[in-house]
Amino acid sequence: MTIRKRIMTILGLVVAALLAGTVAASAAYKDTAALPQTSIATHVIAAPTGVEATRANCSNARWMDVTVTWQPSTSARISGYEIKAYRDDGRVFTVATTGTGTTSATTRTDKHEGAPTTYTFTVTTLTSSGWTSPESLPSGSVTC
Question: The domain spanning residue 69 has which CATH number?
Fold first, then answer.
């Protein structure tokens, strides 16, 4: 390459650099963006139905055995059921927790915890994700 070509190349680069430095940069931005549509599904955990309580034993002077049965929840991922006893005096006790596939539990209540000794029972569905159903409708009353 000759000296003249080198000088012309250098001059061309200098002129290009000077012109490029005087051009203002510009950019246009939108303040909105198109987002993909999303939906969130909600599920209600179904309570067991048909809860029944049957006095299994009342011959002992202190204890009353009650068998509670129910129809299983129709919800998915069930891990078990929680059974609660309600007394006429307003006290509530969790009397049993069962595993998956169980639809009955026999529980023993103490008749000497004070009068009255009339109970009703409810069942709640438990799931593996930690969600629970509302309590079932109560069983009929059981008295010893």
Answer: 2.60.40.10
In whole angstroms, what is the distance from residue 106 CA to residue 42 CA? 34
Q: What is the pTM of this model?
A: 0.69
Q: In whole angstroms, what is the distance from residue 46 CA to residue 99 CA? A: 16
**Number of compact structural domains in the chain:** 1
Tokens at 50, concatenated? 């048909």
Asked if pLDDT for residue 37 goes beyond 80, the answer is: yes
Is the residue at 13 inside a domain?
Answer: no
Digit-coded pLDDT (tens) for 55-113: 988 876 778 899 999 999 999 999 999 999 999 888 899 999 999 999 999 998 877 76
What string of DSSP letters covers 30-61? -S-------------PPPPEEEEEEEEE--SS
Question: DSSP assignment, residue 127?
Answer: E
- Measuring CA to CA, how many Å separate 108 from each of 27, 54, 62, 92? 77, 12, 10, 14
**Tokens 């004070």, residue?**
114
Q: Where are the beta strands (DSSP E) in 4-136?
A: 49-57, 63-71, 78-87, 92-99, 104-110, 118-127
